Amino acid sequence: MPLFHIAFYRFVPLADPDAHAAHLRGLAAAEGLTGSVIVAHEGVNGTLAGTAPALDAFQDALQAVPAFAGLGFRRTACTTPPFARLAVHRRREIVAVGQGGGAAAGTAVDPAAWRALLDAPDVVVLDNRNRFEWRLGRFRGAADPGVHHFRDFPDLVRRQAPQWRADGRRVAMYCTGGIRCDKTSAWMTGLGLDVLRLDGGILRYFAEVPDAHADWDGECFVFDNRVALDTRLQETATTAEQVFADPDDHWRLDRARRLDAAV
């Protein structure tokens, strides 16, 4: 039976994240799903894989929880099994940046309006990802963020924010699925920046814009065994060894090899 990947997240206050984590673990395990889910006081962030009926059942059960009613899921077909096992963790943050956040601010820009921002002279196109992700693929006009780990992203913004403000530049930022931009947008707005964020991230842009290749150079890294997708959301032949060629990323390569060996 064909295999599918789903991604989902929501920033919502959870009084008892441990209880939610246990419930999510039970729902996913009951359907034989694999993948990773992180639960914290600020919400939930998950990527799972399984058959269509199993994912349908999981989604229905999760949306029956009041905190997750109406939660959206992004689904794509898979050739390579993305994950080897199921892991559901309770964490301090659902995406680690150490700057608070969670209440998305700034302006959400849908894919249909994003292209115009890439050509706007008063816009800085900011890649809200790690440097190795940018090297593999990026929107045209996006400079190398120079960030080796997402927790270093705030330092990049602090260094550049005074010049952006002085020049009257708007910041149009993007990430893979939207969560990193949602997490940091409120904090960045608090620095006096005019922030615009690609709603749904790169993967939504690929899904909804037929000629996305006109705005994208390269491939999009994904944090699972598929490694990289093209603008048609198809898996490519790119390997982890090619992605993590920089010596600074060798620890990521070691982790990817352990993950691959477990499949």
Short description:
This protein has helices at residues 17-30, 52-63, 111-118, 131-136, 153-166, 179-189, 201-208, 240-243, 250-261, and strands at 3-11, 34-40, 43-51, 74-78, 86-90, 107-109, 123-127, 137-139, 170-174, 195-198, 216-218, 220-221, 228-229.
Secondary structure layout plus pairing:
Elements: E1 3-11, H1 17-30, E2 34-40, E3 43-51, H2 52-63, E4 74-78, E5 86-90, E6 107-109, H3 111-118, E7 123-127, H4 131-136, E8 137-139, H5 153-166, E9 170-174, H6 179-189, E10 195-198, H7 201-208, E11 216-218, E12 220-221, E13 228-229, H8 240-243, H9 250-261
Parallel strand pairs: 2-5, 6-10, 7-9, 9-10
Antiparallel strand pairs: 1-3, 1-4, 2-3, 8-11, 12-13
Helical residues, percent: 25-40%
Q: How many individual β-strands? A: 13
Q: Give the termini separation.
A: 18 Å
- Strand content bin: 15-25%
Q: Can you walk through the features of this model?
A:
It is a single chain. The chain has 263 residues and is α/β, with parallel strands linked by helices. The protein has helices at residues 17-30, 52-63, 111-118, 131-136, 153-166, 179-189, 201-208, 240-243, 250-261; strands spanning 3-11, 34-40, 43-51, 74-78, 86-90, 107-109, 123-127, 137-139, 170-174, 195-198, 216-218, 220-221, 228-229. The chain is 34% helix and 24% strand. The chain has a five-stranded mixed beta sheet with strand order 4-1-3-2-5. Strand 12 and strand 13 (228-229) form a beta hairpin. The protein is globular, with a radius of gyration of 18 Å. The mean pLDDT is 92.
